[in-house]
Write a structure and sequence with these properties.
- The protein has 5 helices and no strands.
- By secondary structure, the chain is mostly helical.
- Helix 1 crosses helix 3 and helix 1 packs across helix 4.
- The chain is elongated.
Length: about 100
């Protein structure tokens, strides 16, 4: 397999991981989504949403182990994106409910 192809595949994977964390964080702070789950009595889904949000928040904001191969900072470095730009961008430092 071509090394360039491997590199692109790795970058796509890392982009997906970062995007999933951002989505989980935003979903956990979406009042409409939370209201819908509560209204439908989907307690398990609401609980999972909250767990995913807390995990994403920790990874995006609080984990500072930049030596870890899958740390947020390392992932951002791999895809050539500033971690601070993502943190400041469209993501506020809201609390996971």
């Amino acid at each position: 397999m071509d090394p360039k192809s491997n590199n692109m595949t790795e970058r796509k994977l890392v982009v997906s991981v970062v995007m999933r964390a951002v989505k989980d964080y935003l979903d956990g702070n979406n009042p409409y989504k939370i209201h819908q789950l509560k209204a439908k009595g989907l307690d398990h889904e609401l609980s999972q949403l909250q767990k995913n949000c807390k995990s994403a928040k920790f990874w995006l904001y609080d984990e500072r182990n930049s030596d870890y191969i899958f740390s947020f900072e390392k992932c951002c470095d791999i895809i050539s994106v500033s971690p601070e730009r993502i943190r400041r961008g469209q993501i506020g430092r809201a609390s996971c409910r």
